[in-house]
Amino acid sequence: MSKTRARFWAVVGVLLLAGCAHKPVAKVDNSDQPYRIGREDVLDVAVWRDGDLSRTLPVRPDGYISMPMTGDVLAAGKTPTELAEEIKERLKPYVQEPRVTVIVREVNSTRIFVTGEVTNPGAYPLRGRVSLVQAIALAGGFTDFANANRIVVIRNDGNGGQIPVRYSDLISPDGGQDVVLRPGDTIVVP
Predict the structure, then answer these.
(1) What is the pLDDT of residues 24-51, one digit of tens each?
(2) Which fold, 42-106?
């Protein structure tokens, strides 16, 4: 069996074992929170009965979108409904009773970063609930030189958070707590 194939099956086995742990994994349920638009997301802005104002717009790195008649509008941090209301208010002097809908076409702002001794370091989209074990699997697993028991998750939550993690604890039969990742987390595998 090739080294790559063996590594693949090892990661699959670890993921299966992690799912069988006896202790509950800490869960973060954000289902009751509306989505907040982020930088680099792509939005569909539709103005009813006005095809010239309706368009697909990327959110710039500074968090703004640009539209005719409204100029620059801050989109980052707002819900699609909040942004639609602001665009509607800005269009009122020019359009009679504007009806605006904002739909998030592409979510590009929520990413995690995996660096160090993993096969494929880089940025990965955070789609739904992703755990540390899953992120390592996304990055192709550990290299031969990885020190899996000295992983650090760097979290920019205002507290300068660094979460030390021992991989052996995560996959132990005792069911170590897996870390649920948040947008912007960086996983460092020394």
Answers:
(1) 333 333 446 788 899 889 999 999 999 8
(2) wza like fold (3.30.1950)
| Domain with residues 3-30+109-189, CATH architecture | Roll (3.10)
SS3 46: strand
Please tell me the distance from the alpha carbon of residue 154 to that of residue 162, in angstroms, as a whole number.
5
Please check whether residue 86 is in contact with residue 76, taking contact to mean a CB–CB distance below 8 angstroms.
no
Domain ranges (residues) in the chain: 3-30+109-189, 42-106
**What are the Cα distances from residue 11, in Å, to 8, 17, 41, 60, 138?**
5, 10, 31, 37, 10
Instruction: For residue 190, give both structure tokens.
Output: 């020394």
The Cα–Cα gap between 47 and 98 comes to 7
